[in-house]
Amino acid sequence: FGIASGENFVITMTNRREITEDNFSELVQGGVTLYLLQTADQMLLSATKERIDFLPHYDTLVKSGMYEYYASEGQNPLPFALAELIDNSLSATSRNTGIRSIQIKLLFDDSQGKPAVAVIDNGRGMTSKQLNNWAVYRLSKFTRQGDFESDHSGYVRPLPVPRSLNSDISYFGVGGKQAVFFVGQSARMISKPADSQDVHEFVLSKEDF
C-alpha cells in the first residue's frame, strides 16, 4: 500500500469499527468492505463504491411488485405499497427520544430527475452493511445481520400508540422491495448512522440490472 515503515495506520469496517486481534475472526464471514486509514475517524478523500451479490435472479425482484399487487383482489394497492415504503422509517425512528419526523414527498418535477416517491426520516440511520442486507429477498428484518448483529435481536412488539403505526408492516423482508418495483423502477436509499460521519448510499435499479 506504499506505507512508510514509521507510519501508523488502522483497518476499519465501513462503520469505522477498527479491526483488532479480538474481532479479526468475524471477517471470515466474507463480504466485508475494509478501509485502510491513518485514524479510525479520518475523513474519506473520495466516495467508495462496493458491489454486492445476492440471490435470487434480479427478475424475481423487478417483477415481484407486479405479481404481489396485481393479486390485490380488486383493492387499490397504492396505499399498501406506500405503507411498505415507510416501514424502514417506522423502525428507524422507534427509539427516538425527541421528535419523531417522517415525511413522504411525491416528486413530479422532471427538472430534478425522474418522478419519485421520497420518504425522509430523522431516525438512527443504517450502516452500509445494513443497507446491503435490505436488498436480500426473504431475509426478515428481525433476523438479518446488521454489522454482524441484528438491530432487532430480542425484538418485542411495542405497545400500541394512539394514532401511530408500529414497525411490523414488512415483517418478512419482502414488502419493501415489492413496493419499490410496483411504484417505480429503482430504489435509492441514503443514510447516515447517528454515530458516524459517513453517509451511505444504496441503489437497486432495474436499468442497472
Automatic annotation (TrEMBL):
GO terms for biological process: double-strand break repair. Pfam families: HATPase_c_3. InterPro entries: HATPase_C_sf, SMCHD1. SUPFAM superfamilies: ATPase domain of HSP90 chaperone/DNA topoisomerase II/histidine kinase. CDD domains: HATPase_SMCHD1-like (cd16937). It comes from the Eukaryota. This is SMHD1 protein. It comes from Crypturellus undulatus. The gene is Smchd1.
